[in-house]
Amino acid sequence: MKSRDKKLIVGGVIIALIIAVLAPFLASSNPDGLESTAEKVMPNPETEPVIKSPLPDYTIPGLGKEGEVLSLVLGTIIVLIIAYGISVALKTGK
Q1: What domain range is 57 assigned to?
Q2: Which stretches are transmembrane (predicted)?
């Protein structure tokens, strides 16, 4: 991997983490378009999930805004690790 590519990847990871930290403070607490429409169309849009999420509603229960930031940072890191693993698997498969 070229040095320029590494710098681009590191820059992308830093930007993703900055967005994950700032998102809880910038996002609206009011329902967005999709959730608002679901409430209007369906009588009970919130149903019991088949599998309980470890980070429900993008937060860690009991931690407030810090829980939201931690949840988003953890989610971002997990997605980046999965994407990296898939890319390595595809690269070695050739």
Answers
A1: 1-91
A2: 7-27, 69-90
